[in-house]
Batch of 4 targets.
Target 1
Amino acid sequence: MGGALKQTLQTLRRIASGLSERTIVALIHLCGISAIVFVFGIFFFVFREGSPFLRDIFDFRSFFLSEEWHPTSVVNRRYGILALLAGTGSVTVMAMLVAIPFGLGTAVFLSQFCGRRTREALKIMVELLAAVPSVVWGFIGLMVMNPLIVRLTGAPIGLNVLNAGIVVGLMSAPIIVSIAEDAIRAVPDTYVEAAEALGATRWQLVYRVVLPAAKSGLLAAVLLGVGRAVGETMAVLMATGHSIHIPFTAEAPFFHPLESVRTLTATIAAELGEAPRLDTGPGGIFPVEARHYQSLFVIGMALFAITFLISVTADLIVKGIRRKA
Amino acid sequence: MDIRELHRTVDTADLDLWYGSFQALRRVTVSIRQGLITAMIGPSGCGKTTLLRCFNRMNERYGNARIAGHVRILGRDVYDPDVSLIELRKRVGMVFQRPNPLPLSVYDNVAFGLRVHTPRARRSRRTEAEAVETALAEVGLLDAVQGRLRRKGTELQLEQRQKLCIARLLPLKPEILLMDEPCSALDARGTEAVEELLRRLRGRYTIIIVTHNMAQARRISDECVFMLSGEMVEHSETAAMFVNPKDRRTEEYIEGRYG
């Protein structure tokens, strides 16, 4: 009785091990191609939802070069995203003004100026900073920065480019730190040795040798930070003030950080819930109310294109470093 | 003071050095004479490179190096607390085993030392350009790179890169040049060219060269230091050492019994 059971178990195990080998290989293959499937799937879906708008109403001038965004107006529907682009652009620029000095400064400090134990401790802190959920950042923008900015600058409202820029800058800094630190640590030690033997001080070594040698890696780090800032949604939704407005004037061509704006991402997040997804009516024509939903997907495509361009540029730059090394 | 003392530029007395718990140098006492080429020979791991790197305190880059004893360069103990490391490295230049020009232009490579050691206010474009040109001419590189001074130093041929690494030391007017197997990465022709250059520099600089290549030591050096297991075994004139070594271990090494 016992012997028969043992034999059955062994047979089962043999079958299972033969099967599991093939199953595991198949699963790994599936995981490998899943990234491609997902990216194309997302792109296909976004494109499908937005394509009726592209086909029927889209026109480059009135979409990209008009600041009139009235997707729900009864008499005067307009789909111009210039103000939203300006919002995304100004928040990103402000964020980089914060993130680049902080990020690169931290990376230089971590890799060149501090001991091993300080570095390990600081790196954990930087990773923690990256782990803070974006809604918490938004909350900080709303509840902490908002009154602070009003008090310090006298602006009528503290939800503006400055607020969102600082918040998003702090959110982008960790990725800049980690990529930039890798780039700096990849600088061959022979360069460092050569400069030290010539009597360069620590700082001379950093700014005359290390930073120029790590240049492309640092640029890639900054671009990834930019990508992060462009794509950020929840925090900017809460901290920008969400007002459709171009923070530039003809008199002062530089953007005004104390004005409220709205970004592309925040527009999608805030409006998609209210925009009805409608099917074609009689004659195969979409009702005019269906266009709002579709236009949000066209904004999605534009965002997709922007972040895709940024990542590809960063990737090409990083590849450029590897080829040289 | 003895007249011989004046000719001594590098002196060590009972120099010990540990990397962690490993003792790399044992009571090394040696004095190197000014203006000559001194070769340091010995099998791998004998401590010759470590000794060389004591002279410009490059061993400090390895956090675990510990030192006892004295190293006097140009009359000063370099491990005195008030010695300026930057000043020391200005007067004691170093050439490495693998040519390591900085990832800058040929011109900037040679001007690097001057820029690092001259405050901005006292820099002048003209003197800098002259110094760069003189240095490149001195190492025989000027004709080869003329008109291409803006090209990256890392893109030159191997031999030219090593010459560039020597040239970048010269604008600082160092007194001592330390060379850590400067020809080991070069082919025969490159080696010959660098050796020729060393002969030209002889007399104006005190040159200390670490080499694996006994024939090279014999060809270019005036004096030879033979090291073994962290100890200095013999220091004598090159001609004498190769013909008539004083120590049995030296004799065996020169004959090729080990190493």
Note: The CA atoms of residues 211 and 319 of chain A lie 18 Å apart.
Target 2
Amino acid sequence: MSLDPVLAPAHRERWLRRALANRSFLVGLSIASLVILMALISLFWTPYDITRLAVANRLLGLSAEHPLGTDHMGRDILSMIMIGARNSIAVAVVAVAIGMGIGVPLGTWAAARGGWVDEVLMRANDVVFAFPSLLSAVMITAIFGPGAINAIIAIGIFNIPVFARVARAGALALWPREFILAARAAGKGKVLITIEHILPNIAGLLLVQGTIQFALGILAEAGLSYLGLGAQPPMPSWGRMLFDAQTRIAIAPHLALFPGLAIVITVLGLNLLGDGLRDVLDPKLRRER
Amino acid sequence: MSLLAIEDLTLSIGPTPILKSIDLSIAPGEVMGLVGESGSGKSMTALTLMKLLPDGARVDGRALFDGVDILAAPEAAMCRLRGREIGMVFQEPMTALNPVKTIGEQVAEGIRWHTGANRPDAEARARLMLERVGLPEQKFPLTRYPHELSGGQRQRVVIAIACALKPKLLIADEPTTALDVVLQKQILTLLRGLVEENGMSMLLISHDLAVVAEMADRLTIVRHGTVMETGETSRILSEQAHPFTRQLAEASTHVPARARGLEPSPVSEPLLEVRDLTRNYSLRRSRVFGRETMFRAVNGVSFSLAAGQKTALVGRSGCGKSTLARMILALDPPSSGSIRFQGEEICGVSEEALRPLRREMQVVFQDPYGSFDPRHRAERLVAEPLHLLNQRPDARRRRDLVAEVLEQVGLSPADMDKYPHEFSGGQRQRLAIARAIITRPKLIIADEPVSALDVSIRAQILDLLADLSDSLGVAYLFITHDLTVARAITDTTMVMHEGEIVETGPTEVVLGNPKSDAAKALVAAAPNLKMSLEKAVARATRD
């Protein structure tokens, strides 16, 4: 990884100006905020109550009352997508938090300690990496039972080595720097140096990785619930909506279209946000377009 | 008829003016020295000639090269010109080569591109060229990669690439600034030889008058993007008519005036005592189960330092100076031997036990950019060693302490709230010194503290260090490859070569009358303005 973890501070005051000039950052941020806003609104209000089934209204097309139509049980699709966003975001946030919360301390510890600790941790990392993550998540939820909690844990476990690697690579590039040597000459221990100097300087890297993992988490959650291993009904989720739509794709294609679009747009938005964030934080990597 | 004629060249990048009406001309076969401080527009002048300016640059004026107006030439014409008619040698040999291509390929590349030669022919020419720059094929096969070469060898490859097609003009932008003095001498001699053999012209850019003086027929001195003075080297140096020229010349040979401090009393217990210190590094194994090979960076070094004594540790790059410094600072454990500081052993001692010793021993590093966490403010950076005090001062006391040391190093207490990037290189080095003295240490280890600085700034920092040693009575271990620096500030000099200390003595004696080969080489290679002037005058009268 060739990312210089240190944000060139000469550009810091121009951070905001550069962020506002970065198209992918702005588009990504708007999409992400929109999705989050939708999820937050769904906590208080949705156009329809989705626990109420109205079979008479089943498979309605797009209309003023139901902007995105209704599903096979007569539930409003817009309402379901709003609540599904809440579910997706919750799963992805917690999974990223698990990955960061465990991965970053492991990675920075490996970098600070070196020697056999580093070796053992990184080889363990490689072992986790060797498993195909989505398949293993399927396995974990199949063994421990389907449900949102188990999906979160399964996705989170595979985020740990990603963050451990990024944190270690960033920290390793910093340890030989002279300001770290100066801190050591000032008698600061490895923990203190990691907290005071290493973490703030790799925060940008982690933030960018976090956005990307967040998008991957949403995808993974959709995949798991599509297989029926994620959130259980009646809790709606985008993956599950896709599954339900599958058999009716010929008569009501909008059932598959909208949750599919929701997934694509959210993931795209988060990836744009991650890309833009990296450019904003580290303009050296920016390719002029 | 001059080969290159720049007239009224003006350059601005965005809203910032970089060059203001530069005039410069180079005759065929002439070496022109371009001298100025960093940020004076030297490199931008060179890049303008190559038309390799950054985006957003606006150029006005005229630059005629061999009858072609460079500023008006289309990109395709420039591509033919670059490398073929104008060669360029960059400052940083570490980054000027492509790490994934062999040196043979990199030299042959330009030959093939510009002459349409086939691969074997181009390779044969590359072979000859590499041999000419001192990398004969028997010792340095064309299949070597840049990382397998040292800094000086890499710079030779860069020169081979630049000179492979015998360009009419060679631009050398600070070609030796990243190298130690001995390599500097070798590279300059090589450049001079190539230029004379092929009748090339050269534009030699440097911030150090002494480096350029020996090489250049004529000098152009720039400041803030404006030409201050231009003319024959011998005339400029002997007359030193322009005040800025005089300032540069003085900075280059600067020796801080200092009260001869009290001679350290020899009876007292030494502040620092190093005995039989050795440090091995294991190299990569050649086979998985092969024996590890060891590289001995420091080999059986012993010396002692009295309180208040100023000692220089002089040696070429890679001789183990910095490794030795790190071991004394207890940042790197020695393989064997002992280090006693104030009578206490520091090897193999716990970090807790080291704390009182660390307070008495601080460090100033070379790189004024890398030695500060870019995310902290000056107050926090300078106050970092206060962590070592048993009683941590409260916030107000801390600000007072920081303000005090900032004043001592010539900064203002108001600078406390700035971030490191808001300081210039020289100011940052002052900041580094402030950090080093805040705990009132007995010993400061300075690892090449001025070699990344312009000569004029270097003189100021040396003055500051000399003043502080008088007022605080602190001992220095001053690590440098530059003898003028050692001469300026220290009483004792140790010469280090390939991990061993080969010569020790009073600074004047070691530098005036070196005994070991390593010391002789260093003394002979040191740029010397006075001698350069004599040579330049001799050249001028001979012609």
Note: Residues 298 and 499 of chain B are 4 Å apart (CA to CA).
Target 3
Amino acid sequence: MRDWNTKGRDRQARLDAGRHFAAGKIVAAHDLVAFLEAVLRPGDRVCLEGDNQKQADLLAKALAKADPAKIHDLHMVQSGVVLPEHLDIFETGIARRLDFSYSGPQSARIARMMFGGQIELGAVHTYLELFARYFIDLTPQVALIAAVSADKDGNLYTGPNTEDTPTVVEATSFGKGLVIAQVGEIVDRVPRVDIPADQVHFVVNAQRPFYVEPLFTRDPAAITETQILTAMLAIKGLYAPYGVRRLNHGIGFNTAAIELLLPTFGERLGLKGKVCTHWALNPHPTLIPAIESGWVEQIHCFGSEVGMEDYMRARPDIFFTGPDGSLRSNRAFCQTAGLYACDMFIGSTLQIDLAGNSSTVTGGRVAGFGGAPNMGSDARGRRHPSAPWLRAGEEADPDGTPALRRGRKLVVQIGETFGDGNAPMFVERLGALELADKLHLDLAPVMVYGDDVTHIVTEEGIANLLLCRDKDEREQAIRGVAGYTEVGRARDRKMVERLRERKVIQRPEDLGIDPLDADRGLLVAHSIKDLMIASGGLYRPPSRFRNW
Amino acid sequence: MTSPTAAAPHAPLPADPHRSWYEESARGRLSHLLDAGSFSEFLGPQRRELSPHLALFNLPRQFDDGIVVGAGALAGKPVLVAAQEGRFMGGAIGEVHGAKLTGLLHAARQMKRDVVILFDTGGVRLQEANAGELAISEIIRATVQARAAGVRVVGLLGGRAGCYGGGSLIAGCCSALVISEQGRLSVSGPEVIETNKGVEEFDSKDRALVWRTMGGKHRYLIGGVDLFVADTVAAFRAGALAALDRPPTLDQAVLAAEQARLERRLARFGDTADGTEVWARLGVNQPTDVPDMDLDDFLTIANRQREGADAAR
């Protein structure tokens, strides 16, 4: 007769092996390496928790110290490849195969290791896509996760940076895998139960908080006047006419400028209450002035942001907070919200090609995707109407039967024609294609596909790709806002002029914006300190952002 | 970019006194500092006195080589002024840049006219190393000569690039220094210290640490500067006027007092590792609160506890 519980028995064996090192569920930190060697098996699928923000750093370090003779050929399935140890384990042979989503800080090293064959790549995913696979074909046998605190039973408090943890635990624990948590402290009673004890098998006390990267803090002092101009164009040329109330912002300085222009430029345009009221967004410090001046009704967060904890606790109407008062973030739910319940995604990119495909891959770096491709794509399963969605759908297909016509999510790429180091944002051929050739990938790592992009905003104006009727028009609309880049200079001037007459391209002057008005004086805050003051002292910026 | 308000031609006072000094360009700062319409530039950009070195490195040049020098009036009193542009190569001092400042200081000595220097510099321009180092020496000599002739040389420290390297040596020779919280004054910059001594010694990315060791509040508390002002164009104007009211004396007694002051500082604080420890020894009750204090609270405490440098200037 078939054994229907091999997975459960497998977990029981690991539990038995781990108990030698544990008092109840608590494993001593100095036994951690030996403990991991006892509960892991060669070839295991392992989720080492970490994304673009929080990191199970103690567990990562311990895993890297394991004996490759005992633990080898692991298949890592994790959101972020961020810490050096995440790659060290591939160098020593502890791990062999990798499915992941984001690798920002390790983008150069991970590319070298892929070229060198040290990493066997499964695929690069979006966050939501990887989470989905945790429940289908990439269910972890062991999850190494991070929490703020635990009680003696193993109930976990994950705090403002809850992020991926519930998803990872759900898939692992109910999929008969083993869940091991590092916590900052063991307490008698956790402030709130984010993860129930019966889903957690072992806990190790790191006696310090897990590492969190303040990834979403943009210093207003670094915002340029060109970025302010692009922000003015976006507000007046997109937010206002479409009436975008539900949206997600990317991480760049252009969108930070938009956040800082809402209470000044946006207020002057009479947009308060009409746009930017509901957000899927990390707690961007640059949104504080808009929140304080009453623009924002509600924000759901993927993760937290270092220094924003007290501020969010003091604004429970705006943020999702628990009975303990602190933020509860959840990356999987927020990604879903960004996909299905937002009418606009707007973000910066590094390269856009003539079809509107965009990528952040340049010069042999594999930065992964994170969440942007999910936010920056049309949700084909969406069925509820909204004014911006219907209007975008109509622009794309004016002759279609209204009741049968899909709406469209507004997917906006915003940036300067020349970016960092004067690298042109517009290119004939994406760097991602060279990478795909070099690594023999079936798919080039494209952040946002051209057929999902609806608008491109640069200091030269806005290109509305929904209004383009064929490939040539799209190409010329893109060239038309590409300025003095090679791509821009190769435009067909007559065709671009015709597109401008049809408002496919809108220049600053077409929108009644004088580029000379794009002054830093328009920013409602000029520094991190201004943001702290705007928060009434509740925002506590990390040391590295303080210039006082 | 100069703001529209800065260009208002006949306004008696700066039109927007709350504008940030830190954020302004060199020209913007001058237009807010001086009496409206009083400024006339020497060797302006139309003369195109370009750096002879930068082109060798394929680097862009600027028509004024990153410094604006000229004559103007402050509350009716004629002064000579120099403003460094921190946004061009970090305000670094090259051959032409240095020669413009040296010439201005020579003129100041001959005309017996006070000078105000708007510092915003990372120090010597590395691409012009020898010429830049020579320029620093010439500027220091010209500063001391001007001061010996009874001229005041006032330094304003509140620019984005701070005041580092050779720029800080020049500042050290001034008759009075005015600083804002954003201002930084130090010989070695944060990255230089980290590169040479390691991140354990100094983490240049820890900006709060940078400000605790080199920033305006710290420099004011240990008597490295004379006046502490808000980061606004109006406050710097008021600070410059107050600094110009101070005595210009530079004699043996002043130098002896300066030497004694520095020896005392070394003895008192030489073994400390952080600004907060220095402030604690100065008698500040809650030293960790200092960075977050607003201007009034800070001045109340600082003026009671700080090391003065008055006799040493």
Note: Chain B touches chain A at residues 1, 3-4, 19-20, 23, 181-182, 205-211, 215, 217, 291-292 (CB under 8 Å).
Target 4
Amino acid sequence: MKRKHQRLLLVLGSLGLVGAGAALVLTAVEDSLVFFYTPADLAERNITDDRLFRLGGLVEEGSVQQSGSTILFRVTDFTGTVPVSFNGVLPDLFREGQGVVAEGTLGTDGTFTAKQVLAKHDETYMPKEVAEALKNSGRWQNGAATQ
Amino acid sequence: MIAEIGQFALLLALIIAAAQVVVPMVGAARTDATLMAFGSRMAVAQAALLAAAFAALTYGFVVSDFSVSVVFQNSHSLKPMLYKVSGVWGNHEGSMLMWVLILAIFGAAVAVFGRNLPPTLKARVLSVQAMIGVAFLAFIVFTSNPFMRLDPAPFDGTGLNPLLQDPGLAFHPPLLYLGYVGFSMAFSFAVAALIEGRVDAAWGRWVRPWTLAAWVFLTGGIALGSWWAYYELGWGGWWFWDPVENASFMPWLFGTALLHSSIVVEKRDSLKSWTILLAILTFSMSLLGTFLVRSGVLTSVHAFASDPARGIFILIILLVTVGGALSLFAWRAPTIRGGGLFAPVSREGALVLNNLLLTLACATVLLGTLYPLILEAASGGASRVSVGPPYFNATFAPIMVPLVAAIAIGPLLAWKRGNLKAATVKLRIAGVAAGGAIVITFIAVPGGPILAPFAMGLAAWLAAGAMVEWGSRIKLFSAPVAESWRRLTGLPRAASGMTVAHLGLAIMIAGITGASAWRTELITTLAIGESAQAQNYSLTLQAVENGRGPNYNFERGTFLLTDRDGDTLLMYPERRFFPVAGQTTTEAAIKTTLLADLYAVIGESRSAQDAGQKWTVRFFINPMVPWLWLGAFVMVGGGLLSLSDRRHRVGAPRRKQRPVPGVSGAPAPAE
């Protein structure tokens, strides 16, 4: 075994592995991208398919209701509002008037069924997308949302 | 006053670090022993000053000095002492101070323990280490000063985020940082060796213990963080492929690869350029992790309030460090002479495979983590996406399967040219164990995912393979007991450490498989006296009481869990409300058994018109989760065992005799 043979084998081996890795990535990334929309986006884009996506905005004041183990609330960015239903335990920082990101699908009746509601460790934290959405709708002042 | 002393120490440390960049480097270039010796003294002084600054900040937290802005924002006079202290690093400024303190301590450790290093290499290592130090000290001084005063001083603080008021999280950041920052040693050694233009087996021997120590800390830190997320967030999960988690996992993957490739450098004087590159990449991942966590560019479930301006500063540090190191590598690497040749089937070949697969795994994780940023930049902010766990599961797991399968074989191959047939013959027992595990799992847990029994088989294959290798080293059963005992006592601890760490990985794989394949989740609402069924268990809410803790109020549920045989168990999950922060946390009740965790969470209560007050209840049966933590613990134990090897102990072996490249002083491992 000469040095150049050793090198050739290494290069071929790594190329093969990288190829296999790239194939894995390409097949996987297609199915697991989760897009982020605000209520305003939803109104604009007319999303109908049942793909999983993330919905972000503020929990509308006075909108939280419980029926059985299902929780109903509305997410708003002050341009659009989307009703959300969620069957589960809400994260500790979930509160009316606070930012929220929910992951799930949109039903034909316009209700968003959340599979997961994301928690933030810090109550002063606003998800980046929500902050941007609020800035776009002109409800962002001095680093905080105005009601 | 104390805070000003801390501020002063911090500035002084910055100045000394700046001098430490220049003086030893010039000294090494001129081979001026006096200048080089200065480097060591400055490294120690820098560490001492930063320790003083850190102590000053800690003092501020302990005595609740709310005139210091960071203390005001992250502490409260009513907080228990443990969390006053852990509050020091539970915030951005303090945690960055801890970052540079650990960096300086590693630098000082080289200065103090690196007596057997060639003086020029040592001087250059200290200089490179100081370059990183200067960058981050400037970052702290200019963007995140922990000693900023408030005038007038507020009466009381705003409190530490209650989720962070937990013993698991009190110790998670220090461990994680020891790991992250520990890889700076490998980086400094790599850059110094490139400047020096010489990489030999001795270099590998010096780098290995540092890398191993960093790896041990990082493994412990990640496991502790995962454990905290598991019991504190109340979601019943332990790993979410979240950007912040990936940020700590990527250096771990590269670090693990580095750990293995540095063995080849040490034992065989081969793979030298690659190991240098890997050392640079590993620390780059640490820096990238710091950037991702501190800048908040990615939406993470673990994200804390963050400031983009700070992110840009770290990004610049990252680009300069990585760009500079890689340019240096491109320039100098061709001068590094290739070492010993080896056949594809050999110990070296197996370690190359390990490196390729780990690198590939890290690359897919990196891609998945950064993809949202890339897409957002490419689409001008129009498309915002996140890459979810399915991507990571679909790419990561297939790469890990061949890796784990190969781990059992690799150590049985000889250096240079191995005999695959002989290794497979030795591994017959492991094959039988794997087959047995598949069949047993299939029978014991019918109806689960079809791949789960095979993953269990893989875990058994790895565990048995590790034992076979260990057994063959000490000639267990094939030689008289006395002979085996003699071999066992003479076995290098690094070898036993490897066996233990691989066993830990096997235990962890079993845990991961069980936890992801057979989990049962129940979400329901219960009024007092009501019951719900989950698998073999019946869960009854018996009572809910209210009470007060040191700085919170709680609502505690009493659940009676009855299994099919009529055995009962009481569980007490809590919801805690922290008035100072206005925030609620969940304290899950977890009953750990050998094979599963029973995990109960009490949620908010609502008054329904018909049924009175009802509580949301979440109950999980998490099989095999205890094995996860046990596996991580065993892996750390293996790392520590290996670290205690006499051959690794810095300064202990062969102070007079110069190590000869390619010849390891230790007895060759049994083949």
Note: Confidence is low (pLDDT under 50) at residues 650-671 of chain B.
